[in-house]
Amino acid sequence: MSAPRAPLRLRENSLKFAFLILLPFALLYSGTSAAQAAPKIGFVNLERIMKDSPLAVRAQKKLEGEFGKRDQELGKLSDQLKRMQDNLEKNAMTMSESERTRREREFNDLSRDFQRKQREAREDFNQRRNEELSGVIERANRAVKQIAENDKLDLVIQEAVWASPRIDITDKVIKLLDDGSKAAK
């Protein structure tokens, strides 16, 4: 039984020997091809685009224009509630029971109305902001794709803990968005 094992061990040792001889050459060959085909990477800071790009700034101003009047109305209503509350606290002891109850009811009704209007305004604002920002993001993504194709980038990363300024294409994206929005006018 020991005779068949010897050729098997010899084959195993021969394979191990061949593997050990060929391994450095394989690593050397794969290292040179990997160095030649190093991927080109770009980084884009979406937060900066949303803050600094003229397109995003215009979208923000548009939202402020749409909701400015509504915010003023809510501010006036808030001031009115504050005055009513101060008046109730100041004059509660001198008012008759029925007068105090009537004013408290008016205050509570107005407070509920204010909260409802405030909630509706916030929901409307959030919906419009999402619509506006999605348009900016869509155009930014198209700009990133165009820059990646022009610069022959293999990968563009949007979020990172740190990125070298050498691979940061955010300024190019902002410029392309600005140029594109000027051309659209």
Structural commentary:
The protein is mainly alpha-helical and 185 residues long. The protein has a single domain (35-184), classed as 2-Layer Sandwich (Protein Binding, DinI Protein, Chain A), CATH 3.30.910. The protein is built from five helices and two strands. It has helices at residues 2-36, 46-52, 54-91, 97-150, 170-184; strands spanning 41-43, 155-157. It has a two-stranded parallel sheet with strand order 1-2. Helix 2 crosses helix 3 (54-91). The longest helix has 54 residues, at 97-150. The mean pLDDT is 85.
CATH superfamily: Skp domain
Count of separate DSSP helical elements? 5
Along the chain, the helix and strand elements come as HEHHHEH
Alpha-beta content class:
mainly alpha
Task: Count every beta strand, where a strand is a DSSP E run of 2 or more residues.
Answer: 2
Question: Would you spell out the secondary-structure blueprint of this structure?
Answer:
Layout: H1 2-36, E1 41-43, H2 46-52, H3 54-91, H4 97-150, E2 155-157, H5 170-184
Parallel strand pairs: 1-2
Helix pairs in contact: 2-3, 2-5, 3-4, 4-5
Pick out its properties.
mainly alpha, rod-shaped, 5 helices, Protein Binding, DinI Protein, Chain A, single chain
Short description:
By secondary structure, the protein is mainly alpha-helical.
